[in-house]
Amino acid sequence: MSIRLTLGTLAASTLLLGVAAAREPVRDIERADLPGQQVFARQCAPCHGTGPGDDGSPMLPGTAALAAKYEGALPAALELRSDLSAPVLTLFVRRGSGAMPMFRKAELTDAQIEELAAYLAATAALNTPATD
Amino acid sequence: MSLLPPDMDEAGFAAFLEELRGTVGADWVWSGEADMFPYRDSFSPVWNTGEERHASAAVAPENVEQVSEVVRIARRHRVPLFPISTGKNFGYGGPSPNVNGSVVLDLKRMNRVIEVNEERAYCLVEPGVSYFDLYREIQERGLKLMLDCPDPGWGSPVGNSLERGVGYTMPHFRDHFGAHCGMEVVLPDGEVMRTGMGALPGSDTWQEYPYGFGPDPAGLFAQGNFGVVTKMGFRLLPLPEYYRSALITVPRRRDFVKLVNHVNYLSDSGLIGEVEYGSPLSALMGNADFMALATRTGGPSDAEMDAAASDAGLHNWQVELQFFGPEKATLENWHYAKDRILSDIPGAASFEGDHFPMPATEEQLNNTTQPWQTSIKRRRSLGVPSLGAWKIVRDDGHVGFFPVLPRTGEAVFEVQRVLGDAMKEFPTLPPFFNALTTPLFWHTHTFQMVFAPSIKHDDPAHNAITHAAMKKCVAVAAEHGWGDYRAAPIYQDDVAGTYSFNNHILRRFHEQLKDAIDPDGIIAPGRGGIWPRRFRA
């Protein structure tokens, strides 16, 4: 009885039903071969990358937050955004936004932000603008 | 906002900054509102209030010689320094100091992985090395070693361990300070000291024997203010050959007591990694009647919870187990754990989960095939740094209170009731403590529970509730013998004050030490609740 009870428990409340179906496909993108690629990969991609999030989450936290914020009006993935100039990036990097904390010059220099801006612009241009 | 170090005028501050620039270069000294904004605690519950702590400047040396010189300059000018590693201590103060006007000693540029030794399973790193950096080094070199990392991978082994942070693999590696072995420290007079075997010229065992000879002062530098740690060694896990997960559920509320005892035995015997306790009854918390029962003042009776569970066809508790080692050993350990628990707790049930050879594939790391809704965070359980956990951050951040409690089921029930009742004063906060709240088995031999209310930068009324609730948690928990393990600067005096045996002799002892080596408070005055004479006056 105990086994049956617990199996019932799992079926009723805790089995992962349909999680895989709920996940969005991970977009494969072409990346610009610029110095900012490594900066993005190390400093931004762990939260703003295009891959899936941890443990069944369809998106990484930063990408998910922007998807919720823009509701499709802008791409959730930063690498598909063509509107992130260095001054705009600087504003968000140095002042933070919501759950995203501020980044100090000791960890991300102004020169690296310039590299990021160039990389994002070039990468966005390499990929078809996302409209979905 | 323009801010000066304590007891210093504008001219003195300018002269001080000029000396710093002469040591580290003009590009690595900052002051002024724009550059200092990122040194605020973005998770602060006293954001934009008079209680928020602000630094006046920051300096980022690139090596230990520069750290030493910066400390000497600060000593001459009597300027408090606040050392940070990667500055990601969110929920516990971030990069912000205890004392307004302090100068942040930002060690992020010291980012060398000095050594990773595969055969002897250790590493030696600088403070600016993140878990991401160390993991990348191990992967790029193809070393068969496993990290033990905290949830967010952008923190540093040095900073996290000095905060007594935790991870999620095997017991003796989860306690990050406990897993350190050897450190280098710049003392408040600028002298460079090495602990343990590092004090013996020519030794090759700095990362293998932590004590050397005589008293070991290493503990003074964790949550303390006796020096600036510039290197630390850590023990690493040999990459296990195999990973196995499993689930055990027990039907009755009181079964939790036995379940905890069995899991303690398995952990202390080295048979399992971190476990995740939970309650299948969490699925009922959307039901108003059940929520009222689980959060009722004084707590529900065992019979009421058992009846609710039976009505819903659910068990009261579950524990997810994780095994590391050779495949056959993980299987035998699982069979032993299952037999041990199921033979002692009537009605207990067991389920086998994902298991695979290590290292895990990307798909296995994504953790989408476990046949139950798992609480295990796969990447952190396998020592793979990530920021995926940031999805738990609500609003603009949170603060954390994690009381240390006995590793027993009875203690868990008591905390549920006592802190659940105490927090009813703050009805707008989520019921962190209720009849289903389970313990965290993070540190090697003890339990903790979580209270982590959110903060909002534009809602001071909400923050005030969070702030008041944090202080009440610290006080009420201490009345019952449960102490916080780690705290933001704004709570460190409250927490330190609860460790008050024999008229606060521990604090008075620390103050004596501080007065002896750093009476002017050059290194992080107030950190850990330890104030030097200058700031006590």
TrEMBL record, chain A:
One Pfam family, short name: Cytochrome_CBB3
Signal peptide: 1-22
Cytochrome c domain: residues covered: 31-124
Keyword annotations from UniProtKB, A to Z: Heme, Iron, Metal-binding, Signal
GO MF annotations in UniProt: electron transfer activity; heme binding; metal ion binding
Highest taxon of source: Bacteria
Name the UniProt record assigns to this protein: Cytochrome c
Annotated source species: Alteraurantiacibacter aquimixticola
Lineage: Bacteria, Pseudomonadati, Pseudomonadota, Alphaproteobacteria, Sphingomonadales
Automatic annotation (TrEMBL), chain B:
Gene Ontology terms: biological process: lactate catabolic process
Keyword Flavoprotein: yes
Keyword terms: FAD, Flavoprotein
Domain FAD-binding PCMH-type: 51-239
The keyword Transmembrane helix appears for this protein: no
GO molecular function list: D-lactate dehydrogenase (cytochrome) activity; D-lactate dehydrogenase (NAD+) activity; FAD binding
SUPFAM superfamilies per UniProt: FAD-binding/transporter-associated domain-like, FAD-linked oxidases, C-terminal domain
Pfam families, sorted: FAD_binding_4 (PF01565)
Xref: InterPro entries: Cytok_DH_C_sf, FAD-bd_PCMH, FAD-bd_PCMH-like_sf, FAD-bd_PCMH_sub1, FAD-bd_PCMH_sub2, FAD-linked_Oxase-like_C, Oxid_FAD_bind_N, Vanillyl_alc_oxidase_C-sub2
Top-level division of the source organism's lineage: Bacteria
Name of this chain's protein: FAD-binding oxidoreductase
Organism of derivation: Alteraurantiacibacter aquimixticola
